[in-house]
Amino acid sequence: MLKIKNLHASVEGEKILKGINLEINPGEVHAIMGPNGSGKSTLASVIAGNEDFEVTKGDILFEKANISELSPEERAHKGIFLSFQYPVEIPGVSVTNFIKTSINQVRKAQGQKDMPANEMLKKIREKSALLEMDRKFLSRSLNEGFSGGEKKRNEIFQMAMLEPKLAILDETDSGLDIDALRIVADGVNRLKTKDNATLVITHYQRLLDYVIPDVVHVLMDGKIVKTGGKELAKELEEKGYDWLKEERAEMTS
């Protein structure tokens, strides 16, 4: 579904990604871990098409088509979803109106008519129940005055409603207590199908106790330096990242 080849990217002239290679197939959950400043959030932003970052080399293929030149909107229309680490507040736009507009814009781009109101309402009820969301929440302005947990739960609600092919969760676990983490993770797990894929970006093993990854990648200094199964995340939790730095130093010396 996603194939990244030798991806290099920079922001304001500073090189951040230095040759990323990554493949994600339908039905898979991949996790990217790494220390602060390693390029994890940059990778998420570049896949989603954030124009603050300049791709200087390499290709991003989504369902075999090169999307490197597409705008964020065009990528979203193709089925790429990014859950932000720090979701923005949009006063005056309710959660419900935002999600209706988003869904109908995607449908329009795919040559479909707007979703009928009764179908939309049914889907909103279904997905908000899945994430144990209070119905009053849906009439509030998007993220305005929301707690950290409410913002993250709202991001997963948007994902549930939009049903993307590829969902990128950028540190969705940051700032969540254990109950909110469980609800968010449960929502992610229930939305998983053989036809979609998830890329989870996290510092911590604890999210991966709930959202079990098929593959774990370690990103350091703009490169993927190690790939393994879910046990790799546990090893990182126990030992930190220093042993990988030492391992890399030995390989390059």
Automatic annotation (TrEMBL):
InterPro entries: AAA+_ATPase, ABC_transporter-like_ATP-bd, FeS-cluster_ATPase_SufC, P-loop_NTPase. One of its GO terms (molecular function) is ATP hydrolysis activity. SUPFAM superfamilies: P-loop containing nucleoside triphosphate hydrolases. Keywords: ATP-binding, Nucleotide-binding. Residues 2-246 form the ABC transporter domain. PROSITE patterns: ABC_TRANSPORTER_2. It holds the Pfam family ABC_tran. Belongs to the ABC transporter superfamily. Ycf16 family. This is Fe-S cluster assembly ATPase SufC. The gene is sufC.
